Amino acid sequence: MHRSFALLAMVVAALPAACRPAPSYVPRTRDVVITAVPLLTKEMQAIYPFLEQDFAPGGVLDGKEVYAFVPGTVTVMAGDTLRLMLLNPEDDAHTFVMAGLALALPGQSRTDTTYVARTPGIYPFFCSLPAHAPMMHGELVVLRAGRRAVRQPAR
Description:
Layout: H1 2-14, E1 29-40, H2 50-55, E2 66-70, E3 73-77, E4 81-88, E5 94-98, E6 101-105, E7 109-116, E8 121-126, E9 137-143
Parallel strand pairs: 1-4, 3-9
Antiparallel strand pairs: 1-2, 4-7, 5-6, 8-9
């Protein structure tokens, strides 16, 4: 009986990694910093003269300003807890809206919150101020937890 167990252990050890069961994922806490960044604002017209025409009535940015959330995509595993630090280093106010979360981001502020990514999927986040839509957006990508993905050999 002892020899059979030793032989089985040798066979299992010789199996390629793709054939062995992968360990289960253990959810973790992740620190995520997201910053509101101005890209093209009315204040920049002195630096970029072409913006005067763009922000004028009928221009391509009439009634809008271009901001972004950086990073624009955050990827986590289902079950992870996110400690979000939302930074707004400039004067204009913003919001941060996502499934189950809506926050005001006053000018020159830091807003901290916790969010649990429970269900796999792609969840958009955005600033809900009309002058910042549709440019100021991003997405939270929540991957299915469970067994870790194991690469299969190419055929």
